[in-house]
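WARN no homologs supplied; continuing
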Amino acid sequence: MKLAVFDFDSTLMDGETIDFLAEPLGLKEKVAVITEMAMRGELDFFESLTTRVQLLEGLPEKKVDEICRNLPFMPGAKKTIQTLKNQGYRVVVFSGGFRNATSHAEKVLGFDADFSNILHAKDGRLTGLVGGEMMFDFSKGDMLKRLQRLIGATAEETVVVGDGANDRSMFAYAEKRIAFCAKEILKKEANIVIDTKDLTKILPYVS
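OK structure emitted
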């Protein structure tokens, strides 16, 4: 069983979902600074995530869904996923971002499953709280181990693709570790580095 796991923000999607969500509140720059520091490994991921989500308190759920339906996908994302599936891969997304975005992307890009976080809302507005499967720095590695056991995939049969510090934990359980337009902290853990914003560039390494 061949398995390909992609990060979502700045990997399958060209940007960071939470930065787009902060824009209508006039907080994009403030949130983006925290995001960048977290992706470079300079902040604890859980603390940075909860801090940023608190800033989104009051944003209407309808606005969240509207933004998440219009996020820009990375060039080559759909072709890359379809090519991998045609080659027999199960394609899964692990995201420290949010289900509102990954569920929509699943319909458009055609990957098999998504594991991400959930923005808590009440009375149609975000409460500033978040929970889910990808809350911690170790979450992606932990989930990858469980998924490999579930479907019978080995590290040798696993490809992982990401860009930030919170992708390091899943790099430990895959033979092919692709740093895609990544921070230096992740490039050090990778054995394949792609610095061009075109996901089809990974295909020669995984076929």
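Residues 41 and 165 are 5 Å apart (CA to CA).
OK
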